[in-house]
Amino acid sequence: MAETLSIPQTANRQAIYDSLxxxxxxxxxxxxxxxxxxxxxxxxxxxxxxxxxVGFYLKKDNQLVLGPFQGPIACTRIAFxxxxxxxxxxxxxxxxxxxxxxxxGHIACSSASKSEIVVPVFDRSGNVTMVLDVDSDQLNxxxxxxxxxxxxxxxxxxxF
Length: 160
Hints:
With 160 residues, the chain is an alpha+beta fold. The protein has one domain (13-158): Beta-Lactamase, CATH 3.30.450.40. Helix content is 35%, strand content 24%. The chain is built from four helices and six strands. It has a six-stranded antiparallel beta sheet, with helices on both faces. Helix 1 packs antiparallel against helix 2 and helix 1 (13-28) packs parallel to helix 4 (144-158). The two termini are 17 Å apart.
């Protein structure tokens, strides 16, 4: 696949995910380098939706460490169970936060972040190996449509 995306010109996020997911699958198919694939996925999500911040935190040495991302500089290390990323990792579930100020223990890497969604990424053995973190500078910017779409993208990562 060429390194370009065809994004529908619509505000309908479901339509965008429906178009984007097969394009991401084609982009990462046959590429064995995890960092390259994560970088392209973060870039594709940022380009398609214009999210404030999109990136990955990878499990390393009993903590989450910043991986490929798009957006302003970010927190480098997050302890398991801390903040939205650490909670998603520990709970092994997607966490959708309409207002980050209302999430107990939220880690404010940027004061511009207003809402967040974090999706755990599993390996083939069912272990969480990283999380996909998406932040918005708008309150209540994420829905179950985003949760479903991002979980499908996380599944693509599992298949590397």
